[in-house]
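Thread: 3-methyl-2-oxobutanoic acid complex, take 2
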Amino acid sequence: MPTVQEIRQASADGEPLTMLTAYDAPTAGIVDAAGIDVILVGDSMGNAVLGYDSTLPVTMEDVASHTAAVTRATEEALVVADMPFLSYGTSEGDGIENAGRLLKEAGANAVKIESGPHTVELTERLVQLGIPVMAHLGLTPQRLNQVGGYTRQGTTESDAREIRDLARRHEEAGAFSLVLEHVPDDLAADVTADLDIPVIGIGAGPETDGQVLVVTDVIGLSASAPPFAEEFGDVRGEIEDAVTAYREAVEDGAFPDSND
Ligand code: KIV
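Output below.
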């Protein structure tokens, strides 16, 4: 398994980091065996597999139980569990307890926190306690109601400056890597050049140290995907074909064969 320290070093070594979400044991086993460096048990599970239309309803119980399923099936990849909406930020104690639970009970190796000015101190405290933190800037979907949609961030000079500044502050606070979501390519390139820790982009262009996507988008299972995602398969089509073939076989009497 790559350690947090090895992931931290990856930007220095120049090898692109690969990260993909997974939410269940069979998918995690496939993602792990394919050699993906980091598996993120993202709160994107809200949209991807739990049927919500945002990440806001996702609970600590959801993330803990899906993370435990993923860690049971993962041998090599580093497993990062996402801190869901309001599992941090309400008080330092709650943030620490919830992050600790994802390591202690669910077996995650690190947590990811949608970051802002309010998460610098929490990041520092968690790292002091031995809980590795992946920061997340740019589009942070838990702030959907504040930003008004899943729109590209960092497009004005002042927003870009704030993202650059927060990226540095989270690196100084001890974050071992940073996810940068849906920002202009040149801003992502600047942040990547500025930081020593690896920057993992999603909708942030090709100049970051690594890439992350949501697994259901990558395999072609999602009903809809963000503009920056890419389908590398057609699992929705495969499932539709298999389920239709099963229904037809039962209706035609072709399945099952006699047991005798
Ligand atoms: O929840 C998630 O899957 C994420 C990634 C899209 C980075 O935050």
